[in-house]
């Protein structure tokens, strides 16, 4: 398992399809779709490097502003909580009072009960393009833009009573999507100039030799 800077890895995979360390082939034609985000390692790096998280959030906000798109809710929320955390330490507030803990707990509970309804939403049409699987009764869904392709695989597997979500491939424009891709990423990179809903196809997983 390799943990490296995503930007460096993406640049490397533009010219190669192998692991930069062990040289094993990641994928013959779409290696970028088979790299995952290591959130634990990212959290450690943020804690070790002062100001890095704020700088990264600013870059992401600037990116969405440049495209004229709304900044996703999770980036707004993460930036806000980071700022509050830093401000409290700068002011010497190392021990929050009881009322603060109570308010934070209530806000967290309210946020948990939101089920991502406040996130940017994406409309999707899920079509089956294989005779080996049946179509969904309700193929039009609307969900958070932060949901991933893996979430869709689990949803389809549950609806079709499949033994495992790993039996599925999900495609956009006849291209297999990586399981860690968010729907926001899919829309921006593969459906940017097309009208909603985002059309995705699913089929039994094809093992590539």
Automatic annotation (TrEMBL):
<feature type="domain" description="RAWUL">
    <location>
        <begin position="139"/>
        <end position="203"/>
    </location>
</feature>
<keyword id="KW-0863">Zinc-finger</keyword>
<keyword id="KW-0804">Transcription</keyword>
<dbReference type="InterPro" id="IPR013083">
    <property type="entry name" value="Znf_RING/FYVE/PHD"/>
</dbReference>
<dbReference type="GO" id="GO:0031519">
    <property type="term" value="C:PcG protein complex"/>
</dbReference>
<keyword id="KW-0539">Nucleus</keyword>
<keyword id="KW-0805">Transcription regulation</keyword>
<dbReference type="Pfam" id="PF16207">
    <property type="entry name" value="RAWUL"/>
</dbReference>
<feature type="compositionally biased region" description="Basic and acidic residues">
    <location>
        <begin position="84"/>
        <end position="107"/>
    </location>
</feature>
<keyword id="KW-0678">Repressor</keyword>
<dbReference type="InterPro" id="IPR051507">
    <property type="entry name" value="PcG_RING_finger"/>
</dbReference>
<keyword id="KW-0862">Zinc</keyword>
<dbReference type="InterPro" id="IPR032443">
    <property type="entry name" value="RAWUL"/>
</dbReference>
<feature type="region of interest" description="Disordered">
    <location>
        <begin position="75"/>
        <end position="116"/>
    </location>
</feature>
<protein>
    <recommendedName>
        <fullName>Polycomb group RING finger protein 3</fullName>
    </recommendedName>
</protein>
<keyword id="KW-0479">Metal-binding</keyword>
<dbReference type="GO" id="GO:0008270">
    <property type="term" value="F:zinc ion binding"/>
</dbReference>
């Amino acid at each position: 398992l390799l943990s490296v800077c995503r930007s460096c890895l993406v640049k490397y995979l533009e010219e190669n399809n192998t692991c930069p360390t062990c040289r094993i082939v990641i994928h013959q034609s779409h290696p970028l779709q088979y790299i995952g985000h290591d959130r634990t390692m990212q959290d450690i790096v943020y804690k070790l490097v002062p100001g890095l998280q704020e700088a990264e959030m600013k870059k992401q906000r600037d990116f969405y502003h440049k495209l004229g798109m709304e900044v996703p809710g999770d980036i707004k929320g993460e930036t806000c909580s980071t700022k509050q955390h830093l401000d409290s330490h700068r002011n010497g507030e190392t021990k929050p009072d009881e009322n603060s803990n109570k308010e934070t707990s209530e806000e967290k509970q309210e946020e948990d009960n939101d089920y991502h309804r406040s996130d940017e939403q994406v409309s999707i049409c899920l079509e089956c393009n294989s005779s080996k699987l049946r179509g969904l009764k309700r193929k039009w869904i609307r969900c958070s833009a932060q949901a991933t392709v893996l979430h869709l695989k689990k949803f389809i597997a549950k609806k079709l009573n499949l033994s495992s979500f790993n039996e599925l491939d999900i495609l956009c424009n006849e291209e297999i999507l990586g399981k860690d891709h968010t729907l926001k990423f899919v829309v921006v990179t593969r459906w940017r100039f097309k009208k909603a809903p985002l059309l995705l196809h699913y089929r039994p997983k094809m093992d590539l030799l």
